[in-house]
Amino acid sequence: MSAATLASDQSVSTPLPVLGRDVRVPLVTGGEVTYAALDYAASAPALQRVWDDVAAYAPYYGSVHRGAGYLSQLSTDLFENSRAEVARFLGCREGDQVVFTRSTTDSLNLLASVLPADCRVFVFETEHHAALLPWREAQVTCLDAPRSPREAVQTLERALADREPYGPALVCVTGASNVTGELWPVKELAAAAHAHGARIVLDAAQLAPHHPVDITASDVDWVAFSGHKLYAPFGAGVLAGRADWLQEAEPYLAGGGASRKVLRRADGGVEVEWHATAARHEAGSPNVIGAYAIAAACKALREADFGRLVERERELIARVRAGLADVPQVRVLSLFGEDAPRVGVISFVVDGWNSSHFAAALSAEYGIGVRDGLFCAHPLVRTLLGADGGEAGECGAPEEGQSLNAIRVSFGAGTPDEHVERFVRAVGELVTDGAKWRYRTVDGRCVPDTSA
Length: 452
Ligand SMILES: Cc1ncc(COP(=O)(O)O)c(C=O)c1O
Hints:
This protein has helices spanning about 50-55, 70-90, 105-115, 130, 150-160, 185-195, 215-220, 245-250, 290-305, 305-325, 355-365, 380-385, 415-435; strands at about 25, 30-35, 35, 95-100, 120-125, 140-145, 170-175, 200-205, 220-225, 235-240, 260-265, 270-275, 330, 345-350, 370, 370-375, 405-410, 440, 445-450. By secondary structure, it is an alpha/beta fold. The longest helix has 21 residues, at about 70-90.
């Protein structure tokens, strides 16, 4: 398919309404356009339905688990029902707990804090830093980047088989890469983990917004994701799964809400009995709006027919990949190769361009918001770039033709066809004709030079 075939009359179907779809932004070259938000992998726009549900609830807002008043009781019910909706969305098992956190990062740090003392942790070097860094260094075995899903399973099996002694172990793996968008063989990795007596947590930050996640069917022990990537940007996240390690450990945060009973001891100390429910790890006043927004997003995706959304996104991915393939100077980053199933997250470099310059020109000249950098997955991006890393240089061509960072375009359920069409056209024009404006580096970022 060539860029010329990306005519808007080839509409694949309708996106879900999101906030910001009509926002106009100025172009440095004059005039303005509707903003094309193509950075869903960082934070997705709120679904209109999530916003409407939150707005409808807002007047009834009240304290959770505390007040005797009507609105407190209503808010408590809403908060607890939100857990049930998330459990349904994730296909949780009987007895699984849904803990509301701040984000995926927070969820994985919470899990790290409850691991049995001698637990080994296995992670691939390809993980997002949120999944790579929360574990104590002495616990971690960092596995080489596999070049196929099969190699991922074999690498994990070898590492687990080699481990001594045979104590508790956790595998942490992403469902969809935040760099390549490629899907990881979660079910097979879970089977390998369990066969060797290990548990597994799925980092679904990039999977959940694009693809149904089913804890039971994939047989993972925990799932973590963030509301702001799932069209619910109200500061909440989720850790869902097995209750035992969560309930055997000390609370993640100590304080009200996590404690069932607190007594002043005769010796002057304080004695506490902690909750044995999700509340154990939710000390302090819960973020009821954040939790409700996530539940509203889960419901909206479920009711919109997730299968249809996946199909639509697949067509958008095909359009973007075909459009990029038409530009020989573009190299798309991939670990698992051309045919790997993926979500709408695509990273690439452009020969002769500094990625920061390219991303700045997409924004300033076309009104397109993408991201450039190493995407909080430094080891993976460096492996894919074949670069040792370093700071991105001044705007302009990368030194010695080597890219030190990449450009990432990402989209999802709210993306209209026109945004991906504009993006493909913009990439072609920038590569063929060059930027129409001058750029300079300010505080490490490439920006249009408006000083003249
Ligand atoms: C795969 C993956 N895991 C974890 C995270 C961390 O998410 P948050 O920043 O919401 O904690 C991200 C964020 O980009 C991600 O892409």
